């Protein structure tokens, strides 16, 4: 299935939809493709309208500005849609099994999303991440579900703020996928058991054979 077909099926998976909503989704789909090809600033409203099969005036009936279109694209196509449900569905009788399953599910969830790096980079580079707080707020409950699952294994965790554990997991997970793409590793290879298990080992246990005396002396800040 090509990327365009995948997006179309996602948009149209909930039916029935009104003609106005179909037009809106066609605009989002066309804008998504153009933003990935040309960047946000390289795609014009006229180009988006033409790709969606509309007159420019009709485009403004649905979106006031190009920024509004990008926000709609981001909300519809951000990889958080795939990642958070995958993390929330993770299973495991202990924290290690839970984290390993969460990592496998999260990596697998992005196999059909070759666009996700481009979309995230456009947001970070061209918008300085200004839309991310709103996105995080929208999906706070799903993120909280993953955090609560971790809390079930709290007795196995070091005395580290839970927020830092979650941030570290997400950061390392994204780094695993991003560096894999940079090294031209296929999405299928990224989900193979050995490299993914090695990644999880680093997250769970670090890279040092033993904890240094200096590190052992570091105390967590007072809460």
In short:
With 223 residues, the chain is mainly alpha-helical.
CATH classification class of the largest domain? Mainly Alpha
Oligomer: single chain
Number of strands: 0
CATH architecture of the largest domain: Orthogonal Bundle
- Rg from C-alpha positions? 20 Å
Q: Give the number of domains.
A: 2
Unreliably modeled segments: 1-9
Total of helices? 14
Elements, N to C (H/E): HHHHHHHHHHHHHH
End-to-end distance:
50 Å
Sheet with the most strands? none
Structural class by secondary-structure content: mainly alpha
Strand content: under 5%
What is the average per-residue confidence, as pLDDT, rounded to a whole number? 82
Helical coverage, percent range: 55-70%
Stated plainly, the CATH topology of the largest domain is called Tetracycline Repressor, domain 2
Outline: elongated
């Amino acid at each position: 299935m090509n990327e365009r077909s995948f997006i179309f099926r996602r948009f149209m998976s909930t039916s029935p939809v009104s003609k106005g909503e179909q037009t809106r989704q066609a605009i989002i789909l066309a804008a998504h493709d153009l933003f990935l090809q040309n960047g946000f600033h390289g795609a014009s409203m006229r180009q988006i309208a033409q790709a969606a099969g509309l007159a420019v005036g009709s485009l403004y009936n649905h979106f006031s500005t190009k920024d509004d279109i990008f926000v709609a694209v981001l909300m519809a196509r951000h990889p958080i849609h795939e990642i958070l449900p995958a993390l929330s569905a993770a299973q495991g009788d202990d924290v290690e099994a839970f984290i390993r399953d969460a990592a496998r599910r999260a990596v697998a969830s992005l196999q059909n999303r070759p666009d996700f790096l481009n979309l995230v980079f456009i947001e970070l580079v061209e918008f300085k991440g200004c839309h991310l707080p709103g996105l995080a707020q929208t999906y706070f409950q799903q993120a909280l579900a993953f955090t609560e699952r971790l809390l079930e294994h709290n007795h196995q965790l070091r005395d580290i703020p839970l927020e830092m554990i979650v941030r570290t997991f997400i950061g390392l997970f994204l780094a695993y996928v991003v560096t894999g793409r940079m090294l031209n590793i296929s999405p299928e290879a990224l989900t193979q058991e050995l490299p993914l298990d090695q990644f999880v080992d680093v997250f769970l246990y670090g890279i040092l054979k033993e904890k240094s005396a200096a590190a052992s002396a570091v105390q967590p800040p007072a809460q």
